[in-house]
Amino acid sequence: MNILYDERIDGALPDVDKAALLAALEAAEPELKILHDAERLRPYECDGLSMYRTQPLLVVLPEHIDQVASVLRICKERKVPVVARGAGTGLSGGALPLEKGVLLVMSKFKRILEVNAPGRFARVQPGVRNLAISQAAAPYDLYYAPDPSSQIACSIGGNVAENAGGVHCLKYGLTVHNVLKVDMLTIDAEPVTLGSDALDAPGFDLLALFTGSEGMLGIVTEVTVRLLPKPVVAKVLMASFDDVEKAGRAVGDIIAAGIIPGGLEMMDKLSIHAAEDFIHAGYPLDAEAILLCELDGVESDVDEDCALVREVLMKAGATKVQQAKDEAERAKFWAGRKNAFPAVGRISPDYYCMDGTIPRRHLPKVLNGIAELSEQYGLRVANVFHAGDGNMHPLILFDANTPGELERAEHLGGKILELCVEVGGSITGEHGVGREKINQMCAQFNSDEITFFHAVKAAFDEEGLLNPGKNIPTLNRCAEFGAMHIHRGQLPHPELERF
Q: Cα–Cα distance between 277 and 465 in angstroms, integer?
C-alpha cells in the first residue's frame, strides 16, 4: 500500500457540485481570486513533497480576512473540506489538496504590521516569509530565531502550522517557543485569539496546542512573534571525524560539558560531498562525518566556550577542528548545511526527506540502524540533521522511474521512523505528520491517545472539514496498517477487523 498518498481519503468524502460552489463564492465575494480550470490548478497539486499530487476542486487566493471568513462559511454550509496552504514548502504533504475540497491559499497576506523594538515583538500576516521578519527587525539589532532551511521562502503561517525549527532551535527553541499570539478563524469563521501580548495568557495554553496542528483546528490570520537581540558575536567550529559513531557520541559530550551551542549540526560523507560540490563551503572530503558547532554571546564567553568545545571534540576522536576565520567563512559553513537538501537533489533523480527525533544518546545506534536499513533496501541514505536536539533528516535517494524504487523508499522511510520510536523518540521533529507519516502515528501512539487527538480535533471542527485525512489516523487505519501500538502486551480494540 502506498504510505504517502491514500486515495481512500478523497473517496470517503461526499461529491461536491463544483459549479454551484463556484457560483456561491463568486456571489459572496466578487473580488475574490478563484482558480477553477485544470491548467491553473496544476501548480497547486502538491506542497514540498512533490512526488505525490492531487488536483484540488478549487483554489481561492483571498487578500482580506472577510474573504477568508466568507470562504469558510460557504464551505461549512455545503460541507466542503478546506485545506490551508502557505508558501507550499512543507515536506510532509500537510498542504496536499483534496480532489473534493477547496485549497485556501494565504500567500497574499504578506504584510509586516508592526515591529515593536522596545517590546521585542513583531506582528505579521501569515504569508510573510520567515527571513523577512529578521530583515525587518535588523535595523533594531533584533531578529526572529527559528530558521528553517527554507526560511528564504517558507511563510510564518506554515511555520506555525508545522511548529518549524531550524539549525538554531537547540538554544533558541522551535516556533512554539517564539510565538506570543496567534489570531485565527475557526471553520465557522469565528475570530479567536490564542496567547497574548503579555508573558502569559489566562486559561489553558491553547496557543501551544494550536502550534503544530497542521491547519486542522483553524486558519491563521495574524501572528505575533518574539524578537531577540542579535548576539554580539557568533563563531563556528567545524570538526571532522573518520567515523560516524564518534561524531554522534561527540554531540552528547558537548551538551554534557555544560555548553548549549547556538547550533549543532551533523552531516555524513554523502551529504558532505553533495554540499561541497554545490556550495564549495570548504568541507573536508576525506571525512566520514562533520559537526558544525556555533557558539554565540559576548566575545569573552564565546572564546572560552570555543576552547572548551575544541577540547571536547578532540577527546571524542575528531581528526581536525577548524574555526571559521571570519564572518564570510562562517556564512559559507552554514550555507553548505542549509543547502544540503538541494545539493543532494543534484546527485539523485529523486530523494525522500525524512524527519524523526531521537534522544541524543542513541545517535550512534540509530545511525548504524539507518546504515543497515539502507543496505537492506538497496537505497543510499544521506544523513543531515540537527544533532544537538536529535532531530534527524535522513535523505533517501531513489529514482521514481525505476519500478519499485518509490515503494522501497517509502517503506525504508517508515522503518527509519519506527526505529526512532523504538529508541524513545518521535516520528517528527519539525516537518509535521501530514499524509506522509500518518501510518507511523499508529506505531507511536496507542488507541486511547489517538481517540483523544480526535476529540481535540472535534472540539474545534466537529465535522472534520479542516484538512481531513492528515495527521491523525483512524483506529481502523491503524488496524489495517498492522502497526497499532501495543500496551502491556494487549492489542487495543481487538474487535476491529485486521487485514
A: 46
Transcribe 34-52 into DSSP letters. Answer: EE-SHHHHGGGS-SS-TTS
CA 97 to CA 141: how far, in whole Å? 40
pLDDT in tens, 396-453: 999 999 999 999 999 999 999 999 999 999 999 999 999 999 999 999 999 999 999 9
Closest CA to 260 of 298, 310, 296, 312: 296
The single residue listed with the C-alpha cell 539523485 is 348
132 contact partners, CB below 8 Å, separation of at least 6 = 110, 112
Q: How far apart are CA 431 and CA 94, in angstroms?
A: 9
Q: What are the DSSP calls for 191-258, one per residue? A: EEEEE-SSS--SSS-HHHHHTT-TTSS-EEEEEEEE-EEPPSEEEEEEEEES-HHHHHHHHHHHHHTT
Q: Is the dihedral of CA 210, 214, 218, 222 positive or negative?
A: positive
Q: How far apart are CA 304 and CA 326, in angstroms?
A: 17
User: pLDDT (tens digit, 9 = 90+) per residue, 207-254?
Assistant: 999 999 999 999 999 999 999 999 999 999 999 999 999 999 999 999
Q: How far is CA 148 from the centre of its chain?
A: 8
Q: How far is CA 141 from CA 125, 346, 366, in A?
A: 22, 37, 40
Interatomic CA distance for residues 432 and 214, integer angstroms: 7
Strand partners, 85: 105
| HSE value, Cβ hemisphere, 13 Å, CA-based, for 450 | 25
pTM, 2 dp: 0.92
Is the model's pLDDT at 5 over the cut of 80? no
